[in-house]
Amino acid sequence: MKRFAALFTQLDQTTKTLVKVESLASYFSEVDDQDKLWTIAILSHRRPKRPVNSTMIKQWAAELSGVPFWLFEESYHVVGDLAETIALILPEPSSQSEEGLSYWIWFIKSMTQDGEEEKKAKMKQAWSCLSAVERFVFNKLLTGGFRMGVSQKLMTRALAKSTGLDENVLAHRLMGNWTPDTTTFADLILSEDPKEDDSRPYPFYLAYALEDAPGSLGNHSDWLAERKWDGIRGQIIIRNDELYVWSRGEELVTDKYPEYHEFKSILPHGTVIDGEILPFKEGKPLPFAQLQTRIGRKNLTKGILEKSPVIFKAYDLLEWEAKDTREWPLKKRRERLASIVKEFSSESLKISDEVVFSSWHELGIEQERSREYYSEGIMLKRLDSTYRSGRKKGDWWKWKVEPLTIDAVMIYAMRGHGRRANLYTDYTFAVWDGDQLVPFTKAYSGLTDAEIHEVDRYVKKNTIERFGPVRSVTPELVFEIAFEGINKSTRHKSGVALRFPRIKRWRKDKPKEEANTIADLLSLLDIYG
What we know:
Distance between the termini: 51 Å
CATH class of the largest domain: Alpha Beta
CATH superfamily of the largest domain: DNA ligase/mRNA capping enzyme
CATH architecture of the largest domain: 2-Layer Sandwich
Low-confidence stretches: none
């Protein structure tokens, strides 16, 4: 654990990509294969299941530290991070451990079947032989909240540097339904068998937000335009008469979408299609909230399937006749994809139609009409582009419509986390219903550091009631809230739920009486919901 904790410290103390790559590459060159494998798994969001709940951990840490539980809780609220609070408050270790990362992962997993007293004893055993930094890392692994500030792409780059293997090859090998319990470092990373996992998807190619006017991209005839749909990015894979459906989050979701099961019988072996899992009914997309009703459910009832059916909106062809087509120019891939969708006709498989335009000005008009098509904007793709891995600038751009906005009054504030644990940074906003303020959303991003400190001072001086880390405040401050979409919601008092709410600006020029009303919100729902 010492080496992994040292790696964490190195990564935590720098924002420079090259330094992080060097630190990771050195680590991979020094530790054993099992520690390498678990490090890759952790950075790929494949963590062990959480065996102990937070309440137990707090109680045991307070007991071992010899402090009252209320004082531990107050310390936690100030520090803002449970793992860090425990690491700071525990007494010095009575011994040292030389065990590596994989041992402590096994240690955590072994607690799954233990009773409460056994878990308590093991926790105290671990804390008594780990240093402060090691305890912090151990606690993070234990609670499932571990973050190292390293993307999988950066980790893959470091692994390529350490092993001498091609980065794109490694990115592909790291995709798929693997865990350290089902493979080894040699099989996962060093294997040269291209058919080692028929279910394995390709790394997704991601677009950057358009930074300038589209005219800066050159001749409009060099570009393909299509609608940007609001669903879940995914891949449909047909290999050896089996269907695999992957989400962009590297989750195998085949069973969640029975609408796609017919693809296994109509699409030939060696077909991989990139596209969008899109809620769709009566010829038009449904709000993303409809898709959310299916996410996370173990049992999909007939009612849910009828209420929230999905199609697969196909964007790109990544494999055809068992051959990788990603190096084909986009124009050729799209033409083949269109012929496949037409030939192997299915109500659940539709190509994302091209938006035809004869000038950038004309496309701008289409972009402004995006919400009429229940779309988020326009995707622009260079016709001669290959299908690359990860987020790359130059060939693929997303041109989103301007967000919807509403002016709202802040009524609650909650403490933040980490470096903002002493500041009130998470806010609840309300709109007017007659002379009453009705809460409708929460938001925490969009303010500058200076503005956050100014709001924090206001909260502390104008608190009405306290509820743990939350304070209700005198309703005076008005903020413009931006969001991507609005839908009906029976779970919210306002009757609506917003998609990606954030603070656009602080309206110091507007008194609270001029904030928007619930009627204004519902009018947006009538238009865009």
